[in-house]
Amino acid sequence: MPVGAARERAGGHPRAVPAVYEVGPNGAPVDETPGTPPPFEPYRVKVVERLPNPTAAEREAALERAHYNLFQLRSDEIRIDLLTDSGTNAMSDRQWAAMMVGDESYAGSRNFTRFESVVRKLTGFPHIFPTHQGRAAENLLFSTLCRPGSVIPNNMHFDTTQAHVLHNGGRPVNVATAAAYDPDLDAPFKGNVDIGALTRLLDLEGSEKVPLVMVTITNNTGGGQPVSLANFREVSKVAHARDIPVYLDMCRWAENAYFVREREPEMRGRSIAEIGRAFFDLADGATMSAKKDGLVNIGGFVATRDADVAARLNEAQILFEGFTTYGGLARRDLEAMAVGLEEATELEYLEHRIAQVRFLGERLSALGVPILRPVGGHAVYLDVHRFLPHLSDEELPGQALVVEIYREGGIRTVEVGSLMFGKEGDGGGPSLELVRLALPRRVYSAAQIAYVAEAVGRVFARRAAIRGLRYTHRPAHLPHFTARFAPSEEVAAKVP
DSSP states of 404-454 as a string? Predict the structure, then answer.
């Protein structure tokens, strides 16, 4: 009999295995959903953490207290947390062991030497500056290179990247290929830069106004989509012909390399490290949030080939982040980051990582849920306009969907669209309206992922009844972190 028919509930919240499973002769759940089988975890569990299980009434009270902004929820109010894959990873036994050899010297720590050696081996960049996270690396880079009137091209800026450009007086410009804006188009490299658009922009603005070209791998804003090596070669060629440096946002570089290995014929059979190095050799530097493909909970870096830029970064790092050999981190975190950067290149790990994300995407598709195709490297993105076509943009459909998914199953996700980017970016930000379900690395099981798909499927089944939200407080910058909302009908009722 279907397990879903006999679920124990508390306030409407499912407590047993998802309804997509059935019980076999031995009483164990059997997966009979169409599609590929759940991915085999290449690790075993050594420590467990209890999952909270808030009731429907508790979830509703939490939403009201948080003003319908899921960033304001407490972790003990969340059943499955897919808000972000940044810093939410499970570290390995090797990483935890590495932390025990932390040398907490203020300057010249041996952990920095190990960290620097690993980053140089992976990237080839000679000048490396650790930071406490990727946002700090962006701050160092853009405060050093960006000035009022600067133009910064990127395939698609993420919200913090865009915010740092704007904060320093620059203008962020997205130059992704047109394919990036078609959620239903199944193309292999939707993260690519539109070379024609980039060329026209550089010719129009001139090299004196463009201090760098940036390319984000994978393209988070556009659905975690990869950039091909062939495309990046063209970016490098176009920029360098005009003496403009090229920088990578490399926070998900290993996942990007996996897709390149899978989809770009010349790279098939090559190692992840080799493919990554092919990208880095074409670049002049990079920013990195190691909270993604560094498999740690905190840490990052900025790197460059340019000695003059390095000298300015050195001064900025000491001012904002701490001394150059710790960069705002405990030295034991540098050691864990070094191990994590190496582990992220392991093919067995990446095969499981990508398979988990695809597993969620296939489950959702089997339930008819509209998602961005193809499934990207770190998350599944729901296509909000097809999910909630009856809600206008003024009713904040992405945030309304985020709230409804939490209300249904205690699952925290995040809007990636008009709320996250507002009207600050070039052309008012991306034309995509998405909700991201980001999977932390090495954290959730196949059964838990199936539970997510079932909950989202139930929301989709009752989508016509979902109502919109309105702002009650909207900050000027990065509004999705601290904005406040209320149901549309409540706001309308208060208008005289």
Answer: HHHHHHSEE-EEESHHHHTTTSGGGS-S--EEEEEPPTT---HHHHHHHHH
Q: How much is the pTM?
A: 0.90
What is the secondary structure of 2-20 as a DSSP string?
BGGGG--EETTEE-SS-TT
Cα–Cα distance, 244 to 241 (Å, whole number): 8
SS3 214: strand
Q: Do residues 157 and 219 touch, judged by C-beta distance below 8 A?
A: no
Q: Where are the domains of the chain?
A: 3-78+351-494, 93-343
Q: Residues of the chain with pLDDT > 90: what percent?
A: 84
Q: pLDDT by residue (tens digit) across 25-38?
A: 444 444 555 557 78
Residue 38's pLDDT is 84
Name the class of domain 93-343.
alpha beta
pLDDT at 328: 95
Per CATH, the architecture of 3-78+351-494 is what?
A: Alpha-Beta Complex (3.90)
Going by C-alpha positions, the residue among 243, 234, 246 that lies closest to residue 285 is 246
Query: Which tokens belong to 73?
Result: 């929820």
